Amino acid sequence: MRRRTPVIAAVSLLTLGLTALTAPPALAAEVTHSIADVQGDGAATPLAGQTVTIEGVVTGDYRSSTTSGYRGFYLQTFGADETPGRSDGIFVYANTAEPAISLGDLVRVTGAASEFQGQTQVSATTVAAYELIDDAVGFPAPVVLPNNVVGAAREAYEGMLVTPEAAYLSSSHQLFNFGSLWLGVGALPVKATETTDAGEAAGAIAAANRASRLLVDDGYSIQVSNSAHVGGQPYFDAGNVVRNGDRFVSPAAGMILGYGFDDWRLQPQRPLSDASPATYAALEPTWQTANPRTTAPEEVGGDLSVGAFNVFNYFTTFGGDARGAANAEEFAIQRSKIVSAITSLDADVVALMEIENSDKLGEEPDEALGDLVGALNAASAPGTWAFVPTPASLLADGVETDFITNAIIYKTAAATPVGASFADVDETVWDIAREPIAQTFEAEGKTFTVVANHFKSKSRPSGSTAPEPADLQGFFNAERVEQATRLATFIDGITADAEKGANVIALGDFNAYAEEDPAQVLTAAGLVDLVPNKTDEYTYTFDGELGSLDHAFATAEFAESVTGVDVWNINSPEWSDRGYEFAATEAGTPFRSSDHDPIKVGFSSTAAPVDIDIVSVNDFHGRLEAAPPIAGAAVLGGMVNSYREQNPNTVFVGAGDFIGASTFTSFIQKDEPTIDALNEIGLETSAFGNHEFDLGRADVDDRILPLADWDYLSANLYDRTTNEPAYQEYDLKEFGDVTVGFIGAMTEELPSLVSPDGIASLEVRPVVPEVNRVADQLSDGDEENGEADVIVLLVHEGAATTDISSATDASAFGSIVTGSNANVDAIVSGHTHLAYNHNVPIAGTDRTRPVLSSGQYGEKFGHMALSVDPTTGDLLSLSAEILPLAGAYTPDPEVAAIVADAVAVAKVLGAVKVGDITADFNRAKQTAAGSENRGGESTLSNFVADVHLWATRSAEPDLAIMNPGGLRADLKFASSGAGDPDGNVTFAEAAAVQPFANTLVTLDLTGAQLKKVLEEQWQPAGSSRPFLKLGLSEGVEYTYDPTAAAGSHITSVTINGEPLDAAASYTVAANSFLAAGGDNFLTLGQGTNKADSGKIDLQSMVDYFVANPTATPDYAQRAVGVKVTAEEPLEAGDSVTLALSSLLFSNGEPTAPTVFVSAGDVQLGSAAIDPAIVDTTDEVGRATVTVVIPEGTPAGTLELTVTVPGNGTSVIVPLEVTSSAAPITSVTAPSITGNARVGATLTATPGTWSVEAPSLAYQWNRGGVAIEGATGTTYVVTPADAGASLTVTVTASKDGYADGVATSAARTVQKITTSTTGSLSRHLSFGAVPVDFSIRVQAGSGVEPVGAVKIYDNGREIKTVELAAGDSGRTTVALGTLGRGVHLITARFVGNDQLAASTSFPNLYLRF
């Protein structure tokens, strides 16, 4: 129950006396502002200094008695958030007031609004300022704090219970003193100068990292060491391992987002410490392990390895100038951890940093180093490890060294020192750092030198209060640059020494991140920074940001032998209290043995394998712009850049169709922007695709090849004149001593995929023998004709499905995969737009080869990783993967600029409005997401056929046909963005549908040929797509049996309601590709009287929309699958089963649940429709209906009507029926009496019949079509009948006889009379004055006149206008200025099917 109680110290009523009759201020106060009002929209309250009364639930309690230091409460509005964008939480400062309120209570508070250290608050410092409204109402549900809400944007959540969308522990360095943990939001932040050169861009990254930082606090504003703090830090303990990178999990109620001490902080609902009651554990966050410990570094390969390890002030001396452990007990733990770490690191040679310089302390040189080696040998076996003595040059008098030094240790069984250790001694450089120490080794016949390094730290100079340098590189950067420069010279001296050789690796703590000046000095000197180049790991964390201060810089020669690099994250992610000197330490484990993570580098004593990355794309089709899942060219370029940056041995190849069938941006500019983009990306070689030949060979030879910087390949395209290969057959790419050969091949279906006339000079030969011929040539040992260690086939042919069976069957593609010789190591394919990655056994070997396709449009890409022995040329490993591309890589700016320029041009050309649609016009789809099904009927294909029929109407075609492959985009109803409202169709969208610029052709076929064209939808055996569904213009319908033998599928065809006449001639409209026999529709190529209309398919669609501004999809199927199962001969009473298919579309069109089968008006059966998609076919929408032939059915053809009311589909299935019953025959025909005019009543006379007293049924017809509901003996003529012919059909029935049907002679209904009047704007003028003529046409029976009106001057036609629906029969025509003299102006309405013509009286006009 809701109640209101003043919050007053508990006293008796008697003690209150009369004052109890007067409420304290808070009790009397009403709410003046919501919490959101106080918070406002900005960083500060808009009500500063004003007294406000607010109401909310107590979500946080830090009152004075808790000793938290905050001395107040958090309140949050109770109930639904009615002020999105403004915070509903706030801090209430109570000072020492102790109101009787608790967490979860609903209270009202009066106080002054203000800001304190960046946080909005209300100051209410007396008990009287608080009023309990209701106790224990609970807490508002925590709000998700989105990852992208950072910095000042978090003001909208200040003071509220929140739970971060995704946050990860980034640092625990403030846990011991402030009880705080740092979080990375979304991902762990990386130091700006780790990835980016110091400067503006790095500054932006640093600022973004700072803005995203989020702290988990303990509810105290005082340090843990403060005497007022109860207990220690609350979050970590020795028994539970939590590491940087582990995911933060909020408590169930969330945590409160507060701001203080210049950071956004998640506060628990009460102050927490390790002394808090057990019940407070529910207020603590938990951690989901996302960065688990590992017991050893990752495998780095090779037969040798080197490592680097900062041993964290390993001193055997205690006190004085010694660093590290304070006593023997601590040292024992430290040593156990260091020994465990180095042992598990398992490197053959290890460079050490921060080990005691014993000589500097007056001890024996290398005393501490010897101690460490002794401990390592004790943990393994005597003699396992040895150390490199400190170079004599560092022990000489006058050399200034530090109390810590560098060192090198090694496994004696793995490496042997060559000569003495040596160092670079130059106290003008190394006076504030540790001199680099070097040792040359010999191992497994390989000579290499290891240099241990430790540059000057970034720490502020002692006593300095200077701010951090603005360039983000820390203090002493100039000195580190000087040290890097000196180190590069030192390494040059090593490589110049023939006894030491060129294999040098410098390891250690360089106190510089990867893109800082010192690191750049070393890489500019030709050294390879292996850590960022070979891993995505980091060695250090500082202020919650990851980065690598530790590096392994190798000479190019050494880097070539590197087989792997790992940063073993045993230290930087760990809680510092795991170190040797704290209670949570874990003796004998490697974890937190140091603050830097060790590095391990694997390398080979022999020539290292050559690792090659092959990235591939197929069927890109000019998809320049990003439209997920399409990545766009700039991201494609970013992907290639990324691989090349990681591995210079990267090659970008393709399997054809980079251009052609492109989106508008590329298409309208003849794909030249796509070619420019691919040139910029650096496409190196590709097979031809069929779409490269869309405009014929001449376009390829004269335009495409000169524009493309890459090599186009095909081994099976021959010049018919020379009988030689028409194009380059293969391309060789060299990677050091390894050569990869790429062979190109084209689908054998090319002549059916492009206009045959355009490639008349080319012969397409079988793929397999031509590919094998070239592969054998590249493998025969003859350098003169080209040799390759690895062979990759780039073939523009592909699998029909993503199942591996489609890559190994008897299809054209399966034959390529299984028939290619064993020396073809991999196959990159395309053409069918499917993404797959198979490992297919190579016949006669124990090997497999990857067979892959990346799908379509740059949605994905293929990646193959090869490792090849450079000495033998043997392929050591080969793996393949298909990876998503959209959004996965940083866009290439140069490519992005090319795309932007292309878009700007296309935007101007493509923004023109063409027309409107009322819903989507889609292509058919398959079950695979986004996969087009060219075997399915589609609303788009049928619509385009309708457009082609309309566009060629001057040739009076009977029908139009459209091929599914000619449609490359859907027409979508939904807006694509600003300026493109729903339903709008632009020129660009229309162009995307038909991007091939085909012309429209008409030709004549016989009915038999037309049926054969429909049969050719079932493609020849082995075709990549077994079935291609033709789009048909409205009025063409057919049924087919999907189970029939080839050439016998089509069971019936009607054109405009009439059965197809096999002997008759029909005029067909089709695009020029189809008309030439493309897509294996060879019969179309045999048509006669071919006439090219000269109309481009795209322009025809534009013209169509001009004439028909709005288009609506037709959801009726124009083809229906029907398989009839029945015992013949059929008689009345027999059962017939119809297996129906193709009753529905497949791409989101309206579905219909039921199909009905009827005979005449009698419904015989129905069935539910299965909407499941059937890939590669048109069988979507299947149902089986069993019906019984009605009793009394006469012999002859019984027409069963199959209808799907839900989408308008209706087809006739004729059945031949025999009957023993005698039919009723008409003796005298029915007739119609009465006046055939609108409004009159007509009467049907039934005629006479061959039997007495039959039952009679009537059906009135208009133009041969039954009039709905007109089934009586009389019929009242309606305006819709005007000008039409009416008949009546009489059906006579009688038991024992077959029904008789007869139809009367037609009666033509008079047209409705009209009257036309005209009025001139003037009848007399002197001089040239414009004249207007207003016309009105009126018709009887309430019919609105529509149609043409002709205007005459003295009997000569001068204008024609159209009256449209909605004009109400009125229009005004501008006649302009008429000549001098007398003019008699008349208007004549020419009439239409319903309305009679009429002419106005002449209107006199005189001009002087």
Automatic annotation (TrEMBL):
It holds the Pfam family Metallophos. Keywords: Endonuclease, Hydrolase, Nuclease, Signal. GO terms for molecular function: endonuclease activity; hydrolase activity. Residues 1-28 form the signal peptide. Residues 614-833 form the Calcineurin-like phosphoesterase domain. Residues 926-1083 form the 5'-Nucleotidase C-terminal domain. This is ExeM/NucH family extracellular endonuclease.
